[in-house]
Write a structure and sequence with these properties.
alpha+beta, Tetrahydropterin Synthase, Chain A, about 15% strand, lipoprotein, cell membrane, Flotillin-like
């Protein structure tokens, strides 16, 4: 029976058998009878090696390396210039499927590990055989950069890609045993039996769903989704994780040091999120589900590798003096390497460089600090002596300045005292003059006030007398005004009474006349409105008649115009037909225009019309023709022949139209 098989986010299916020529790769597929299906994991695996090699001066050394290797699915190679241009992700996976044993995950990991180790040891031996140990140490950056490129060329044959290469400093310990650790198993997870009913899956705020199987081509990412039978769904967290790492590195002077750092790393938010999450779901999320140590080792390997590569090309003094630049370069290189896995450095805290206690006696930073401390103490003592000397000189200068300032103050005090005495005398004289002026002004003001008081008293007396007289007059005037008002009121009352009596009659008469006028006006208005209405209706009727007549004329003109157009079209078609007829007749007559003209005149009845006209012209004419012959008389036969010849001669002398007319009328 057929069965439906689906792969996880970091898995692929390899199907062979009936209906498939070579190998078919898919994320989901129906597997029929006669077909075989294998799952394989594409998650990168970290491998640690101690490659053994020997320099040109026959010194054996070990090269600790950490490689993160996996199938190349997105052409995310670090060494693109060494790749074959026409190799794509599908071909790489086919190479990986064909060359790596997928049926046993442990065996496949060992196979990959063995391939990488063989390539590393071979390329390391080839490069080291042409260099001394000192040259390898001095040119470590070139040596470390060249070896992964050659290894990648070898791994291309198997569809493998080096995601990250961390090559440490060579160590000359001949008895050093290889400390290898088994790579992370890439065992393919067995397909869980699909639930009979669909289920609705919801991811948390920091989670995503990765769905594969029926209806999904590769991997579908969602925050919520229905998971149907034939589909597989896993959750993965995208929360950034903090990693504390203590990087051991060595400068170009072979001085070891440590670089403590703390990195917060998670899926990148800056580039297209779907692409980042797909990489993260395929390469990193499966490692979280297996063990967090896998991710820690991966990140640690990237950071340590980039730090060692940068440190190996710089002296300790350059690293210490340019600490900020060194940290920025480490950050940039680490970010570039993590981008392949869809990871982004949210924050990095690279601490101060410290001495590496292994091997003992490495106290470069301690000695450097003691040196700086001694320099500071020496500078402090010199500064203290200079300050003491400047203090004594300043004290003497202050004493001299004090004496100078005291003498100057005494002289200025005496001058100021004399000046103040003169100013005091001037002020005293001025005050006395001001007092006298003030007394005189006060006396003048008193006299003016007394005169004003007398004037005001006289005015008040006058005003009081005038007020008494005016009061008496006002009483009399008021009495007269009241009397006048009473009389005026009486006259007004009588006037109103008379006005009311006469006005009532006039008002009634006026109202009657107004009503009559309004009635007559209304009648005239109604008559005018009726006349206007009749005129408007008559005008509208005439307008309608004129419109109907115009429409009738327009329709007749349109009909005539249409008839003329149709007649013109008919004539045009007849003319075209005649032209075609004449052309075809001319062609049949071999281009003889005279023959064509005669035929056209015959078809048109021209000759018949000419005969008819000639006959009508000759009708009523009775010509009498006498023929005399001077020839002697003979027998009857000769006489008849002679008469016929004479008649023929006469006919030949007649105009052609007479002959045609006679022929038509049957005269000849």
């Amino acid at each position: 029976m057929a069965r439906f098989v689906m792969a996880g986010p970091s898995e692929y299916l390899a199907i062979t058998g009936w209906g498939i020529d070579d190998v078919k790769l898919a994320k989901k597929a129906w597997v029929f009878a006669g077909q075989r299906c294998s799952k394989f994991d594409i998650s990168p695996v970290k491998y640690e090696f101690y490659a053994e090699a020997m320099t040109s001066d026959k010194l054996a050394f070990h090269l600790p390396v950490v490689f993160t290797v996996g199938p190349d699915i997105n052409n995310l190679r670090r060494f693109e210039e060494y790749m074959t241009p026409d190799v794509d992700a599908d071909n790489n996976l086919l190479l990986y499927v064909k060359n790596i044993d997928l049926h046993d995950s442990h065996a496949s990991n060992n196979r990959v590990k063995q391939l990488v180790l063989e390539a590393i040891e071979r390329e390391t031996r080839v490069l080291a055989a042409s260099m001394t140990l000192e040259e390898i140490s001095q040119r470590s950056r070139k040596f470390i950069g060249e070896m992964p490129n050659q290894v990648q060329l070898y791994l291309n044959k198997f569809g493998l890609c080096i995601y990250q290469a961390d090559i440490k400093q060579p160590i000359s310990h001949p008895d050093h045993t290889a400390n290898t650790s088994e790579g992370v198993s890439a065992a393919a997870s067995c397909q869980a039996q699909a639930r009979r009913m669909a289920r609705f899956m919801v991811a948390g705020a920091s989670e995503y769903l990765a769905i594969t199987g029926w209806g999904v081509d590769d991997v579908k990412l969602a925050k919520k989704a229905w998971v149907f039978p034939g589909q597989k769904c896993i959750k993965f967290d995208v929360t950034p994780v903090s990693y504390d790492i203590d990087v051991q590195a060595m400068s170009s002077e072979k001085l070891p040091f440590r670089l403590p750092a703390a990195y917060t790393i998670g899926p990148s938010p800056k580039i297209k999120r779907s692409t980042v999450l797909l990489l993260y779901a395929k390469l990193i999320a499966p490692l979280h589900n297996k063990s967090l140590n896998h991710v820690i080792n991966l990140v640690k390997g990237v950071i340590e590798g980039e730090t060692r590569v940068l440190a190996s090309s710089m002296t300790m003094e350059e690293i210490f003096q340019g600490t900020k630049k060194f940290k920025e370069e480490v950050f940039d290189q680490v970010q570039l390497a993590l981008k392949k896995f869809g990871l982004y450095i949210y924050s990095s805290n690279v601490k101060q460089l410290v001495d590496d206690p292994d091997p003992p006696g490495n106290e470069y930073f301690s000695f450097l600090g003691q040196k700086k401390q001694a320099e500071v103490e020496s500078k402090a003592k010199v500064a203290e002596a200079e300050a003491q000397m400047k203090g004594e000189i300043g004290a003497k200068e202050r004493e001299g300045l004090t004496l100078q300032n005291a003498a100057k103050v005494d002289a200025e005090t005496k001058v100021l005292s004399v000046r103040q005495q003169g100013v005091g005398c001037k002020e005293e004289i001025k005050v006395k003059a001001d007092v006298e002026v003030y007394e005189n002004e006060r006396e003048a003001e008193i006299a003016a006030a007394q005169a004003g008081l007398a004037v005001k008293k006289a005015l008040l007396d006058k005003q009081s007398k005038l007020a008494e007289v005016e009061a008496v007059k006002a009483v009399a005037i008021r009495e007269a005004e009241l009397q006048l008002e009473v009389e005026r009121k009486n006259a007004l009352r009588l006037t109103e009474k008379l006005k009311a009596e006469k006005l009532s009659k006039a008002t009634v008469q006026y109202e009657t006349q107004v009503q009559d006028s309004n009635a007559a006006l209304y009648n005239r208005q109604m008559a005018a409105d009726a006349t206007l209405f009749e005129q408007v209706k008559a005008a509208e009727a005439r307008k309608a008649q004129a419109g109907a007549k115009f429409f009738e004329q327009k329709m007749a003109e349109d009909a005539r115009l249409y008839a003329k157009q149709r007649e013109a079209e008919a004539l045009a078609r007849v003319g075209k037909a005649k032209a075609k007829f004449v052309a075809s007749m001319l062609q049949e007559l071999g281009g003889d225009h005279d023959a064509l003209r005669d035929n056209l005149m015959i078809d048109g009845g021209v000759y018949e019309e000419m005969a008819r006209i000639n006959a009508s012209a000759m009708s009523g004419i009775q010509p009498k023709i006498s023929v005399w012959s001077n020839e002697g008389g003979g027998d009857g036969a000769d006489a008849g022949a002679s008469a016929g010849a004479m008649l023929a001669d006469v006919c030949n002398m007649l105009p052609p139209f007479l002959i045609q007319g006679n022929l038509t009328n049957g005269a000849v």
